[in-house]
Specification:
This protein is of the alpha/beta class. The protein has two domains: 2-256, UDP-N-acetylmuramoyl-L-alanine:D-glutamate ligase; 259-430, Class II aldolase/adducin N-terminal domain (L-fuculose-1-phosphate Aldolase, 3-Layer(aba) Sandwich). The chain has 13 helices and 20 strands. It has helices at residues 16-26, 54-65, 81-91, 118-125, 136-143, 150-163, 205-218, 223-239, 258-271, 327-338, 352-360, 381-393, 422-430; strands spanning 2-9, 30-41, 46-51, 72-75, 98-100, 131-132, 167-176, 179-186, 189-196, 202-203, 249-250, 287-290, 300-303, 306-310, 313-317, 320-322, 344-349, 365-367, 402-405, 414-419. The strands form four sheets. The chain has a nine-stranded mixed beta sheet with strand order 3-2-1-4-5-6-7-8-9. Helix 1 (16-26) links the parallel strand 1 (2-9) and strand 2. Helix 1 packs across helix 7 (205-218), helix 5 packs across helix 6 (150-163) and helix 10 (327-338) packs parallel to helix 12. It starts with a strand and ends with a helix. 45% of the residues are buried.
Amino acid sequence: MNVLSIGGSDPSSGAGIQNDIKTITSLDSYCFTVITAVTSQNTKKFFRVEPISPKMITVQIDSILSDFKIDAIKIGMVYNSSIIKAIYSKIKRVKIPIILDPVIKSTTGGVLMTKSSIPDYKKFLVPLGFVITPNKREGEILSGIKIKTKNDLLKCAKKIKKIGTKNVIITGNRLEKNKISDLILEDMRHHFNTTKKLSKLNHGSGCTYSSALTVCIANGKNISESSMFAQKYTVESIKLAEKLGMGIEIIKVPKIDPIKKNLKNAATRFVQIKNIYSLIPEVQTNFVFSRLNPKSTKDVIGINGRIIKSGKTVQVVGDFEYGGSQHVATAILAINKKFPTIRSALNIKYNPKILKKFQSQGFRISDYERSKEPSAIKNKENLTVTWGIKAAIKNFSQAPDIIFHKGGFGKEPMILVFGEEPNKVVDKISRLF
């Protein structure tokens, strides 16, 4: 995914454009940037801000939008009305999600949006937003409502929504002891994402949250999924915060997990295969990749939702997490014990014609009959899967590429495609078309 971040420069790299680049890149997306202002700040103090000229801002935006496909735009620091109007003139007709992070004051004490420019921010940019992510203080400033209770919080979000933003998320609310809550107002429904309060004072959590949220939205996830992921990602970043200077800690983005990255990239390839919808079973599809020498499903990354079809459209719904799959992950655990190089698998719809196509490609194919499983393990799904895979590979000296079963009472027939890593699984499936 390609994300355009519009905002201010922070030389400490704790927040601002530098933070956005770190966060968006860590989530396997490309971050284009437009600088609106240059700040001078460190972990102890905010020294100075110099806004970029409106003309230069418009030229920067033109240079990006005229050359690259952008999947979402994040707007952070907009120091004054001239900058706000310049940005508005260039993005008012774009048809991609715009995520607004209304930074008004930095953690280090600097003014990031002048008081006189707030009416223009509300007039020009807020109505363009797909979602806006103020913290409690920013929400109070934008709405004019003092927040003391959850009811105040909801009133605040609804008032901001009336300005024109489709969705509102008010972050970092400390309305319960030892807890932090984000209020999500999605269309006219609302709910809270709540997590344990961390004692660390840090620099950059707001930028991290809005950047993670933007990447999720760019990937087509809804507000509920995106906000939950953004909160988890931000909490993990705060836990990793380091005291790099003599003042407050700077948060660090989590390291990229190569196993997760590999699986996500392969899943993207899978859903883009022409006519792939025809292979999605009624129970939908999961796709997994394990660590070396996995001991349990907690060592296997899967999708905590599914790869689903809607008509002829196929998409990943859910996050990639260790322990995110049970059925397909259990199959990998069973086959990996005999064939340790096999660490990835994906389930597709059973069809004899598909099996014939796999056979014509020279793939090794095995099966098992669920009717023959011992009565002691029937209706115990994970035990059934383990038994079935062991039965299917019993007489194989090399790992089969395909294992299938024809179903049973209340059980859909299924094909499992195996490989050393996710892209090899996708390569095998691509040869069907």
